[in-house]
């Protein structure tokens, strides 16, 4: 298929932003040309169809949890690591797009393999594990097994709440002093599991902990220009702030692009669950920075402030997450410019980052970066890249179906 993408992928405003790497004015995104609706829909539908075709070929042979590709083939984790929820989540998205009952069956079987993680108190990633798998299974099937299991996982997650600092610690066992005061931006994406638990049980402690954590993150992470560090450390005993840090970003003073995307998506979600206007203000601030730092090809570099940006390795998964967050943010703020920016990103991913030219590839989305400082996964595929790409595309093509799966409602 021949697709003209010049007006979608290149703008003078984008080039200027790429060279300065500073936050844009609030109206910068609105100055870009609007994507052509018919052309965009064709591109995104073709990408979703490709994903379904790829999954039809690969999914029946998958009996564990994809973690990352090596030479274009999935490597696996038996317990799901932190990414196990994205495989059943991707299968659910494929089912919504295709109606193929095999994807539904495979999604349920994959979700069931996560059952032992419901009582895991050693990680903050229970939202990543159970929201796209068990919560979605509950919403799409009505089987109380999935709802009850997701609430049990939320009960494990809320044990990680530090009342002195009003945060959820990211890593380490509850009795392990290492990392006891470490907070990371990624946790913003795990808070919706707690909101779900309060909705289902009426017990406010889940959402109260999520809201307190979001406010702590809001208070300490964003810089005046809207950029964020990956990590912020606190004294676990007193809750006193220590300062910014990083694990997956270039430095404590840089801006890891996927973390920035987690923030946009996570703060918008917390606004929808609580009605707190300040969360929406924060999401907007983070989104404006990310859009100002975006390169003209509309695929984020792995860190917006690393020395070699904008000529640095990409992270397509950051683009997929950011696009989902921007679509949500557009609906929450009523600003079409955020939706248009999301469409440009999704179009760029669909036309420059898919695995369509490889006969070996088992994933859908290429050009992801997992952990650049550790030289762990550069120019690879990751399961959250595939998941958020499909979620973003279906938010455009099938918004009612996505709403059924992940609940886009607001209080």
Question: Any overview of this molecule?
Answer:
The chain is mainly alpha-helical. Helices cover 51% and strands 9% of the residues. The chain contains 15 helices and 9 strands. It has helices at residues 6-9, 12-20, 37-58, 86-98, 101-112, 126-141, 144-158, 191-201, 205-220, 257-274, 277-293, 316-333, 336-352, 383-397, 399-406, and strands spanning 65-70, 73-77, 161-162, 167-168, 182-184, 231-234, 241-245, 368-371, 376-380. The strands form 4 sheets. The protein has a 3-stranded antiparallel beta sheet, with no helix packed on it. Strands 1-2 form a two-stranded antiparallel sheet. The longest helix has 22 residues, at 37-58. The protein is globular. The termini are far apart. The model is unreliable at 1-30 (pLDDT under 50).
Tell me the layout of helices and strands.
Elements: H1 6-9, H2 12-20, H3 37-58, E1 65-70, E2 73-77, H4 86-98, H5 101-112, H6 126-141, H7 144-158, E3 161-162, E4 167-168, E5 182-184, H8 191-201, H9 205-220, E6 231-234, E7 241-245, H10 257-274, H11 277-293, H12 316-333, H13 336-352, E8 368-371, E9 376-380, H14 383-397, H15 399-406
Antiparallel strand pairs: 1-2, 3-4, 5-6, 6-7, 8-9
Helix pairs in contact: 3-4, 3-13, 3-14, 4-5, 4-6, 4-14, 5-6, 6-7, 6-8, 7-8, 8-9, 10-11, 10-12, 11-12, 12-13, 12-14, 13-14, 14-15
